[in-house]
Amino acid sequence: MGGQPMFILAEDTQRTRGQDAQSSNIQAGKAVSEAVRTTLGPRGMDKMLVSDSGDVVITNDGATILNKMDIEHPAAQMIVEVADSQEEEVGDGTTTASVLAGQLLVQAEDLLEDDVHPTTIVEGYNEAAQLALEAIEDVTLDEELDDDLLESVAESSMTGKGTGDIEADALAETIVAAVQQVRTDSGVDRDSITVRTQTGASSSATELVQGVIVDEEPVHDDMPRSVEDATVAVLDLDLEIRESNIDAEYDITSVDQLEAAIEAEEGELRSYAEKVADAGVDVAFVTGDIEDRVASYLAKQDILAFESVGDSDAKSIAKATGAKTIGSVDDLESDDLGRADHIRVEKFGDDELAFVEGGAAAESVTVFARGGTEHVADELERALNDALDVVTAALDKGGVVPGAGGTEIAIADHIRQGSAGIEGRKQLAVEAFADAIDIIPRTLAENTGMDPIDALVDLRSRHDNEGIAGIISHGQTGEIGDPVEHGVLDPAAVKREAIESATEAATMIARIDDVIASN
Ligand code: ADP
Ligand code: MG
Predict the structure, then answer these.
(1) H helix count then E strand count, the chain
(2) What is the CATH number for 227?
(3) What is the pLDDT of residues 193-212, one digit of tens each?
(4) Residue from 384, 488, 495 whose mutation best tests the ligand 1 pocket (most atoms within 8 A of CB)
(5) What single DSSP character describes residue 396?
(6) Same domain for 118 and 45?
(7) I need a labelling partner for 130 at 20 to 30 A (CA). Which of 25, 163, 201, 494 fits?
C-alpha cells in the first residue's frame, strides 16, 4: 500500500481539525455571548442595530440582538439557536442562556488545555446540569402565586427595558390582569392576548382593553364614533351596485326612463342599507367596498360601518363578538349577529383605531401600549410580550425562583457540593460548570457597577449564612440582598430552559474536532 494519497473531498473543501477546530469554534461561541453580556439585567445597556437598508432597532433583548446581527460562523450560529429556543420555549432569559453557553465554552477551553478529554467534559457538564435542575427545584418558592407575586415576576422581566420604575409597576398590573382574564383550568391561553402599540403618548398611558383593537376607520363622517351595547355584523361582501345593472336591465331611450333607472339604482342601494338596519345591526364590519350612497344611508340610520376590513381583523372581530361571517345581506339573520358592550373609534395622530370591547364571546384581551416614538413603542412591545410570557410560565410551567443571580448562586453551590462525590477528571468538568454559572451574578454585579469579585465573595458568604442572596439593583446602585424580599423573581422554567439549552449547545460544540466546509 502507501504511495498515492487518496482524496475523498472536493478540492476547495476547507478542513480544520483537532485543537484548531475546537479553538476556532470556542472563540466564535464566546464572541457571540460576549456581545450580549453587557445587556444583562436591569442595569444592562441597550444595543443599536442598523441593518443594510438602514433600519434601526434599539433593544436590550438577547434574542433580538443575536438575530439582527447576521452571524455566519456555524458555531456562533449555535449560540443564536440557544437564544431562539429559549425565546420559543419560555419567552424570556435569552441573554442569560446565551451568556451561559458562552461561559461553558470558556471553561471547556481551559479543560481541554488541561488535557481533559471532550467526552469527559460532556459527561461532567451533563451531570452538573442535572445537579443544577435539582437546585432550581430546591429554590422554587412554595408560596401561592397570587397577583402580587405575579406582578413582581412581570416587573422583574421588564426592568431595564426602557420602562421607568413607576411605569413598570403599572404595566405589571396590566400584564397580570390580562393573563388572569384568559386563564382557565387548563392553563393560560396566551394566544388570546395581543399586544398592540401606538406611538404618540408615554408608556404610562398603556391600558388593558377587554377585546380587540383593529386599524379601521368609519366610512362616513356622520356615523357615530361610539356605540354602546352594539349588535355587530361581519359581512364578507361589497355594498355597491354591480357595474352593468343599468345597461342590462333598462333600454334607456328617454329622460323618463333614465330617471326610472337611477331611481331603481338608488332603491337597490337603499335596500342594502335597509336590510342591514332591519336586521338590527348597529355596527357593520365589511370586507369589501361600501358605495358612498350606501354609506350615507347607513349613517342616516345611525349605523357605524367600516369597509375594506382585512381578513385577520374580520376574523378577530367575529371571534370576539360571536358574529358569523355572512356573504350576502339577503341572508342576514339575527342569529348571525354578534354583540359587544362598546365599540368606539379613536384618533391617534393620523391613525384611527376601532376598539371592540366586551364582546359576547370575549375571550380576547389586548394590551394597548403607548410609546412616544416608534423605537420606544417597539421595545415596549417586546418588554410587554416578555412579561406576558414570564407570568404565563410562572403559572403553567412550575412556579418562580429568586432572581438577581440568587438562583445561580444556589445552583453553583449545589453543584460544588455534588462534585465532591464524583471521581477523576470528570470532577474538574463538573466544577467548571459551577464556575461558568457564576457568570450570571458576576455580570449582574459588573453591569451595576460593583466589583465582580467582591460581589461574588459577599454573595457566597451570605448564601451560606443567611440563605438566598442576589445583586439587587434599584435606581443607579446595587446591593447584596434577598431577591424574594425585594420582589425580584424569575420563572423556574426560564432557568431550567437556560441550563438545558446552554449545556446542549456547549457540549455539542466541545465535541466537534473536525470542521469540513465545502465552498
Ligand atoms: P434575559 O434576556 O436573560 O432575560 P435580562 O436583561 O432581562 O436578560 O436580565 C434578566 C436578569 O435580571 C435575571 O437574572 C433577573 O433576575 C435579573 N433582574 C431583574 N430585575 C432585577 C433587579 N431589580 N435587580 C437585580 N436583578 C434583576
Ligand atoms: Mg429578560
Answers:
(1) 17, 20
(2) 3.50.7.10
(3) 989 888 876 666 788 999 99
(4) 488
(5) H
(6) yes
(7) 25
pTM above 0.70, yes or no: yes
Cβ atoms within 10 Å of 118's Cβ, excluding its own: 18
Residue whose C-alpha is closest to residue 106's, from 164, 37, 154: 37
Q: Is 244 helix (H, G, I), strand (E, B) or coil?
A: coil
Same-domain pairing of 335 and 405: no
φ/ψ of 356, rounded to 5, equals -115, 105
What is the extent of the structural domain holding 62?
A: 14-141+401-517
Residue 164 has pLDDT above 70, yes or no: no
User: Does 28 score more than 60 pLDDT?
Assistant: yes
* Residues with catalytic function: 61, 94-95, 386
Whether residue 96 has its Cβ less than 6 Å from ligand 1: yes
Among 36, 89, 96, 401, the mutation site with the greatest number of ligand 1 atoms within 8 A of its Cβ is: 96
159 CB less than 6 Å from ligand 1? yes
Closest CA to 223 of 155, 307, 313, 98: 307
- Looking only at the bridges linking them, the beta strands covering 325-326 and 226-235 are parallel
133 shares its domain with 219: no
Q: What angle do CA 137, 139, 140 make, to 5 degrees?
A: 65
